UniProtKB/TrEMBL annotation:
<keyword id="KW-0732">Signal</keyword>
<feature type="signal peptide">
    <location>
        <begin position="1"/>
        <end position="28"/>
    </location>
</feature>
<dbReference type="InterPro" id="IPR011047">
    <property type="entry name" value="Quinoprotein_ADH-like_sf"/>
</dbReference>
<feature type="domain" description="Pyrrolo-quinoline quinone repeat">
    <location>
        <begin position="127"/>
        <end position="374"/>
    </location>
</feature>
<dbReference type="Pfam" id="PF13360">
    <property type="entry name" value="PQQ_2"/>
</dbReference>
<dbReference type="InterPro" id="IPR002372">
    <property type="entry name" value="PQQ_rpt_dom"/>
</dbReference>
<dbReference type="InterPro" id="IPR015943">
    <property type="entry name" value="WD40/YVTN_repeat-like_dom_sf"/>
</dbReference>
<protein>
    <submittedName>
        <fullName>PQQ-binding-like beta-propeller repeat protein</fullName>
    </submittedName>
</protein>
<dbReference type="InterPro" id="IPR018391">
    <property type="entry name" value="PQQ_b-propeller_rpt"/>
</dbReference>
Length: 461
């Protein structure tokens, strides 16, 4: 059950005015309390979180991220007990996770776009080149791409893919040799952040602008970059199996029946894009008397987890056996989504919990699939800026600069850290170590920070 921990308005106010002493008692009116024009209390309360306040074991200054350009990027990755980060001088540095000792540094004028894969760090320079460096700091290769605003790097098999909005490049992971580089129409395409390769076919998603803007997937030959097919109003694949692509179709303004609702799963041949027929999952709703039609998110999105397709049906969440589809089949399970209008599905299940974001508060919410009970992880004393879940721990950075660790299963607060920052990046975890990415603070001389917290504390969750 949610604990309400919101700030409430002050119900009593005492004011002392030294100016009254200047008025002669002969002419002074009788003192009386002035009533307020408006006074209200929302009945909520704020309680201090009872958890040990700890200090980071170490902190290291890193480059701040421009979220307008790198909206989903972090300045660091943690692997095998080490942290690799872009420091405040735009260099790649390696830090020993336990002590924060700098092991080596590489390059200069680097951007906060990097990944770690198979013992190699791949990153981008401000001039638009991709580089590969070993985990010991030795340069392997550098390849010029002209991607000065690259947004993502992916390593799939023997290929490294780099994206920059509507552009995509493929580079050999071992040698750095450019395989191909392509670009869609920059006036109508805007690249999104999903990319996959299967059976020699690369699939990437975009927002494509026509009379309306919708998601589209494009399929390319992974060896040459040649476009094989495209599908407008189609989401990134739920899955690909036996040469068939399964994707959620967007039917907004095509089939807007407010009572007889449905989610459509389109099926395409992986190599040719030929339609293999649609699947439809149907439900009914009471007619909305105000005439509005709501679509997407809690009102008709879906995701696949194992063999189960979860379909968000407004007030109801339903699951279906995806691989035993029958037209108009009933759900295998149903759950009430309660006050569903505040929920935004994150399409993620962990420890028997399905996660949402509360888009009124920005906080993290989970539903126990076994019981249907909702759990709120935003019961701190300030709004949530960043929330991450690892194992049985929930890590929350608040807008007041306080970072909290909670037990996922019991909701009990385990520790708090005063970072002095109002912004956070994704939390990093390697083994039993937790690393906090935060914005400028006095701890890092007003630079952004990466900080490691006590592993004995973090291991409790």
């Amino acid at each position: 059950m949610k604990k309400m921990m919101h700030r409430s308005l002050t119900t009593g106010l005492a004011v002392t005015s030294i100016g009254l002493s200047l008025i002669s008692s002969e002419f002074a009116p009788t003192a009386s309390a002035e009533p307020s024009a408006v006074s209200m209390s929302n009945g909520a309360y704020s309680t201090a979180i009872q958890a040990p306040v700890i200090k980071p074991s170490w902190s290291f200054p890193v480059i701040p991220i421009d979220r307008n350009q790198y909206s989903e990027q972090a300045v660091a990755v943690a692997e095998n007990g080490k942290v690799f980060a872009i420091d405040s001088n735009h260099r790649l540095v390696a830090l020993e996770g336990s002590s924060g000792q700098k092991l080596w540094q590489y390059g200069g004028q680097l951007t906060p776009v990097l990944i770690h894969s198979n013992g190699t760090i791949y990153g981008m320079t401000q001039s638009g080149s991709i580089y590969a460096v070993t985990a010991s700091g030795k340069k392997i290769w550098t390849t010029s791409l002209g991607f000065a605003k690259a947004d993502h790097i992916y390593r799939i098999g023997s290929t490294v893919y780099i994206t920059q909005s509507e552009q995509t490049a493929a580079v050999d992971a071992a040698s750095g040799k450019l395989k191909w580089k392509i670009s869609e129409n920059k006036d109508s395409y805007h690249g999104l952040n999903n990319l996959m390769e299967t059976d020699g076919v690369l699939i990437r998603n975009y927002n494509v602008q026509g009379s309306l803007t919708f998601e589209q997937i494009n399929a390319y030959d992974a060896k040459t970059g040649k476009k094989l097919w495209e599908s407008f109003r189609t989401s990134f694949p739920l899955t690909v199996k036996d040469g068939v692509v399964y994707s959620l179709a967007n039917t907004f303004m095509i089939d807007d029946d407010p009572v007889n609702r449905k989610v459509t799963i389109a099926r395409y041949d992986l190599k040719t894009g030929e339609s293999k027929g649609d699947r439809q999952y149907r439900w009914t709703e009471a007619e909305n008397k105000d005439g509005t039609f709501q679509s997407g998110g809690i009102y008709g999105s879906a995701f696949l987890y194992g063999k189960d397709l979860y379909v968000f049906q407004g007030k109801t969440l339903a699951s279906y056996d995806f691989w035993n589809y029958k037209a108009d089949s009933k759900p295998a399970h149903k759950w009430s989504q309660g006050d569903y209008e505040q929920l935004f599905p994150l399409s993620s299940i962990h420890e028997g919990r399905l996660f949402y974001q509360d888009f009124r508060t920005g906080g993290l919410i989970a539903m126990k699939l076994a019981s249907g009970q909702f759990i709120h992880y935003d019961y701190g004393d300030n709004p949530t800026v960043q929330a991450d879940v690892f194992g049985k721990g929930v890590y929350v950075g608040q807008s007041d600069g306080v970072f909290h660790g909670y037990d996922l299963m019991t909701l009990k607060p385990v520790f708090s850290v005063n970072t002095g920052s109002r912004s956070f990046g994704p939390i990093l975890k390697s083994g039993g170590m937790i690393f906090i990415q935060s914005g400028p603070s006095s701890a890092c001389r007003q630079a952004a920070c990466i900080s490691k917290i006590n592993p004995k504390i973090s291991r409790r969750i």
